């Protein structure tokens, strides 16, 4: 068995005196599509923040490509090869689509066929049409496409999406799922947080259900389908 690309091992993370994660553990293999599922406020976003260096775990380890990155500043985590599409998109509102993309462009991992603006525009033709528009003037769906494109321009080995399709129109959601299907086929490892289980099941290799800051169930899409009724209370659907 190959070693995990990302291995989160029993991390505890706090907001002041309040413990948000308690022994949180999950892993992502190279090229694997993994989900973090669960109700709001159960620790999924805190897990992402802990991986990305936006919060520092009090205990436990987070290994990426065999190196412990727990507690590193966010810019070092990003340089190590992890790209984030944050909840709420957070594109640069006063930069154009073109400027948002070139602002993060880098091939630190030395990929033979790195992401370029042209590749992003081929993935999301809407962004090509709006390349001169400010981020603030895009629709929510277009901002999400831009947030994904911006993360891909860092040429990550692992892409994390926090609420991939939240608040988006059905047609835009379909565009995002089509994009993620292509990215998975390319061999990119992905962690996805989303509530649209019907779209996640055909895509994901492994699922983790999070409850009160820890994983309470994990398994394949087939196992999740078979146990969906029993697990419904954890997912709030």
Describe it:
The protein is an alpha/beta fold. The protein has a domain at 1-80 and 189-237: Rossmann fold. The chain is 37% helix and 25% strand. It is built from nine helices and ten strands. Strands 6-7-8-3-9-10 form a six-stranded mixed sheet, sandwiched between helices. Helix 3 (97-104) packs parallel to helix 6 and helix 8 packs antiparallel against helix 9. It starts with 5 loop residues before the first strand and ends with a helix.
H/E series: EEEHEEHEHHHHEHEHEEH
What is the name of the CATH architecture of the domain at 1-80 and 189-237?
3-Layer(aba) Sandwich
Strand order of the largest sheet: 6-7-8-3-9-10
Largest sheet: 6 strands, mixed
Number of strands: 10
The whole-angstrom Rg is 17 Å
Detail the poorly predicted runs: none
For the record, the CATH class of the domain at 1-80 and 189-237 is Alpha Beta
* Count of discrete alpha- or pi-helical segments spanning 4 or more residues: 9
- Percentage of residues in strands: 25-35%
The CATH homologous superfamily of the domain at 1-80 and 189-237 is named P-loop containing nucleotide triphosphate hydrolases
Helical proportion? 25-40%
The geometry reads as globular
First-residue to last-residue Cα separation: 34 Å
CATH topology of the domain at 1-80 and 189-237: Rossmann fold
- Give the helix/strand class: alpha/beta
């Amino acid at each position: 068995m190959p070693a995990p690309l990302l291995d989160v091992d029993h991390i505890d993370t706090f907001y002041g005196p309040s413990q948000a994660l308690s022994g949180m553990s999950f892993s992502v293999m190279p090229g694997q599509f993994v989900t973090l599922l669960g109700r709001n406020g159960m620790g999924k976003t805190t897990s992402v923040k802990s991986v990305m260096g936006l919060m520092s775990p009090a205990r436990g380890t987070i290994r990426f490509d065999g190196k412990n990155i727990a507690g590193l500043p966010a810019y070092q985590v990003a340089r190590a090869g992890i790209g984030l599409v944050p909840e709420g998109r957070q594109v640069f509102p006063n930069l154009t689509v073109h400027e948002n993309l070139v602002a993060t462009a880098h091939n630190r991992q030395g990929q033979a066929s790195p992401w370029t603006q042209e590749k992003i525009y081929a993935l999301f033709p809407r962004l090509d049409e709006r390349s001169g528009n400010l981020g603030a003037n895009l629709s929510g769906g277009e901002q999400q496409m831009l947030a994904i494109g911006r993360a891909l321009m860092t040429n990550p080995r692992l892409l994390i999406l926090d609420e991939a399709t939240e608040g988006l129109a059905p047609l835009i959601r379909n565009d995002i799922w089509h994009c993620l299907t292509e990215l998975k086929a390319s061999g990119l490892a992905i962690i996805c947080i989303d509530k649209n289980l019907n779209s996640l099941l055909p895509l994901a290799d492994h699922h983790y259900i999070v409850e009160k800051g820890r994983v309470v169930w994990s398994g394949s899409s087939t196992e999740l389908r078979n146990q969906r009724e029993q697990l419904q209370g954890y997912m709030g659907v």
